[in-house]
Amino acid sequence: MRYRELGRSGMSVSEIGYGAWGIGASGWVGATEDESVRALHRAVDLGVNFIDTARGYGESERIVGRVVRERAGDEVLVATKVPPMNRIWPAPDGIDLAEAFPGAHIRESVETSLRVSGLDHFDVVQFHVWSDEWVGRGDWLQTVEELKKEGKIRLFGVSVNDHQPDNALALVRSGAVDTVQVIYNIFDQAPADALLPACEEHGVGVIVRVALDEGGLTGRITAGATFPEGDFRARYFRDDRPAQVERKVAAIVADLGIAPDEIAENALRFVLSSPAVSTVIPGMRTVRNVERNTALSDGRPLTADQLAVLARHRWQRNFYG
Hints:
By secondary structure, this protein is α/β, with parallel strands linked by helices. It has helices spanning 33-45, 60-70, 97-100, 103-117, 140-149, 169-174, 195-202, 233-236, 241-256, 263-272, 287-294, 304-310, and strands at residues 3-5, 12-14, 18-19, 50-52, 77-82, 122-127, 153-159, 179-183, 205-209, 279-280. It contains 12 helices and 10 strands. Strands 3-4-5-6-7-8-9-10 form an 8-stranded parallel sheet, covered by helices on one side. Strands 1-2 form a two-stranded antiparallel sheet. The longest helix is centred in the C-terminal third of the chain and has 16 residues, at 241-256. The two termini are 36 Å apart. The relative contact order is 0.15. The model has no long low-confidence stretch (mean pLDDT 96).
């Protein structure tokens, strides 16, 4: 496993991190706790030292906390998220900060997460939505600084609204944030335009989510794909979206001259080819997922020619809507 600096924090994180939404049984159907625990342990065995969870991920914080406590001899960094008090994802324009992240709500959420996980601190606490309208307003920053002084959190970050990377530029430039979590993948390359350069300039760590487009960039989403009842992907890949994805992936495979089953590997290597990226957090619900994804931390980024090919495959859309 290779490691990268998490911005200016002084922390080193595995470039393949662990996205723990899927193990919480709050949106993805099919995870079992026994397999999730085995997968987390295997990830730590293979050098993963960064796990991303959230208050809103069902049982995820509890499961992650259990494994981290069982691996007390290993340094495993845990990031979690504070949900907006109004429970609106993403944050629309014009929302009063007092409705989303008042100080009392931030503190209550962090303390609940600590209690549920059994941990004594979090290495990163992130707001689960963000709007640059909130820079310089409210008491959130004061509360964050108090939680840092109390040793309950080490770093503060935000999870940038889906497909809105420029909506965190003012925050990054303000110096008030340590990390940003953002969607960045072959389809959504927009963060590379302004956000990633700004993070490099200001020493802000970058946590990349949805590198595989919720499964779209694995090659396994094809026309007619179906998902279990209650699985959020049934909504994400509704109507003719699977057929659209299948066509787009086939075009990438053809242009790169790779086998269809190599698309996921190339999608993760695309993300890791950016020096601004600190870690990528694919969702991993099984030991097999862990072993396949961690094997890509081998120091082989895509070539300039491959990146030039992929630059032509931007696909601007929002399947969350």
